[in-house]
Design brief:
Rossmann fold, 15 helices, 14 strands, two-stranded antiparallel ribbon, disordered N terminus, 14% strand, six-stranded mixed beta sheet, alpha/beta, single chain
């Protein structure tokens, strides 16, 4: 065992070296960002730079130093640099914001109780600037990490153990995006026996089947493995899982267990110990009750602001459409909304006037664009006008949909608004898209737009419905702006 521990321990020390270096870089970046934000707030509010020699400047600088120490300590206390959460998902950003707001809450309370003469403007400058810069810095580091992982660097080697179907799904999800940094190096299938040289093709890679669970664990003991992922806890049993954790702990190898639920975010998964037996509780989706009213209020406010800001752009688009082609400025398409109720979705007209009558001929000529037999998307659709093609590329044609939001037919963020013929083809699972209002944008919009297949579009819509939160809406809106500016996937 000692030889195995040294062998695997060496591999583990190599894998954690980048984690320690990455965390150290984040710490240095956090200190620089926080110190700069606090120094700027001190100078803007009081006109005293931290390097000044006056008595007031020294006092303010002393307070600022304590402020920086408290803020950076809060970032550490909230484990915002934990290697468990950096580089993927919203949790890292959430912890950064939580630490920042906690810091300012603590400072505000202390200054109030001690009656310290620190202007509120000082905090009002440091909080938004520091928080935004921290998030931007984390995003930059995440981009660098993703690029390194995409090059095959900074990888986490995984041995997956479970039934053939389940472990194939797990391996597929782990390796689907190289930026996540997972590399499945072996598979163990209970009851398989000794390895026979078989490989499983996952995402263009051939993953060897080591054999049964004993052969997979022998592969782990051989070194070079960072994590063991299992999908079949029933096979191991309670005692077997406990023994496995002890074995892997001695080898400095992580253990992860797939809960067996797909497309459910961590926010809905709560571990609740019952009589010393851990149970995974899946919380209900949040599209009912008070959350619905909060989303509705956000939709109304956002739609009004968007219409006011974009009204000059919409006016120019309307004039351009009217001057370059015959027909109305707006195109009203019947879509199916919440609970199966039809409504007229408003867009700027981007096609010739008789475009709908030409649809059947185009479908007959090019069946390849009829995705899954439901959606029709043609990259070089001859019905699109010159102005319409330009409007589509930068998504200006969709701006009138904010009036649908005001009419309560649509939401700012939601599933893609379906046509009646699509709804007629829905099965029981897909029909869950009708539980919420369709959106102007959504996960489908920021994950490929027109390049998505029917199946991917449905899965993203269902994922959004099951895991909705206000934070996710804000993130999708931000990603939509980026996708529109980059002109990704629109035609």
């Amino acid at each position: 065992m000692s030889i195995l521990s040294v062998t695997v321990g060496s591999a583990f020390s190599r894998s954690t070296r980048w984690e320690r270096a990455y965390a150290a870089r984040l710490l240095v970046t956090d200190i620089v960002v926080v110190a700069s934000a606090v120094a700027l707030a001190q100078y803007v509010r009081f006109g005293e730079a931290p390097t000044s020699d006056s008595m007031m400047s020294r006092q303010l600088t002393g307070f600022s130093v304590l402020f920086v120490l408290l803020w950076t300590s809060a970032l550490s206390a909230f484990r915002s640099r934990s290697t468990r959460i950096v580089g993927a998902g919203f949790e890292e950003y959430r912890r950064v914001l939580s630490a920042s707001f906690w810091t300012f809450g603590a400072v505000a309370i202390v200054t109030l109780l001690l009656r310290l003469e620190v202007a509120r403007g000082y905090l009002a400058i440091a909080l938004p600037i520091g928080s935004v810069c921290l998030l931007l810095a984390r995003k930059a580091w995440r981009g660098a990490l993703a690029r390194g992982r995409a090059r095959g660097e900074i990888q986490t080697s995984v041995v997956a153990i479970g039934g053939r179907a389940e472990v194939s799904i797990l391996a597929c999800e782990l390796t689907k995006n190289p930026a996540h940094g997972y590399r499945v190096v072996g598979i163990g299938i209970p009851g398989y026996g000794e390895g026979r040289g078989e490989v499983v093709a996952i995402n263009g890679r051939s993953i060897p089947v080591a054999g049964d669970e004993a052969a997979a664990l022998a592969m782990v003991a051989g070194g070079g493995v960072d994590t063991v992922a299992i999908t079949d806890t029933e096979h191991f049993g309670v005692q077997g899982i406990r023994d496995l954790t002890w074995t892997l702990d001695a080898l400095d190898v992580d253990l992860v267990v797939s809960p067996g639920v797909m497309d459910v975010t961590g926010a809905r998964l709560v571990m609740r110990p019952v009589a010393n037996f851990p149970l995974l509780h899946v919380e209900k989706p949040q599209y009912h009750g008070a959350a619905r009213w909060g989303k509705r209020a956000f939709d109304l406010i956002f739609a009004v602001i968007a219409i006011l800001i974009m009204s000059p752009v919409m006016l120019v688009a309307a004039v351009a459409i009217k001057m370059t082609s015959q027909g109305p400025v707006f195109y009203r398409s019947e879509r199916i909304g919440k609970d199966g109720k039809p409504f007229k979705m408003i867009k700027f007209r981007t096609m010739v006037q008789d475009a709908d009558r030409q649809l059947l001929d185009l479908v007959a000529r090019d069946q390849n664009d009829f995705a899954g037999g439901v959606l029709f998307k043609m990259r070089d659709d001859p019905r699109v006008t010159a102005v319409g093609r330009w409007l589509r590329r930068i998504s200006i044609d969709e701006l009138p949909q904010f009036f649908n939001v005001l009419k309560q037919d649509m939401s700012v963020v939601g599933p893609r608004p379906p046509l009646e013929r699509e709804v007629q083809s829905y099965d029981g699972a897909v029909s869950r898209r009708m539980l919420v209002k369709p959106g102007i944008t959504g996960l489908w919009q920021v994950s490929g737009r027109s390049n998505l297949s029917w199946e991917d579009s449905v899965r993203l819509d269902l994922f959004y419905i099951e895991n909705w939160s206000m934070i996710s809406d804000l993130v999708i809106i931000a990603k939509t702006v980026r996708a529109v500016l980059a002109r990704e996937g629109a035609y």
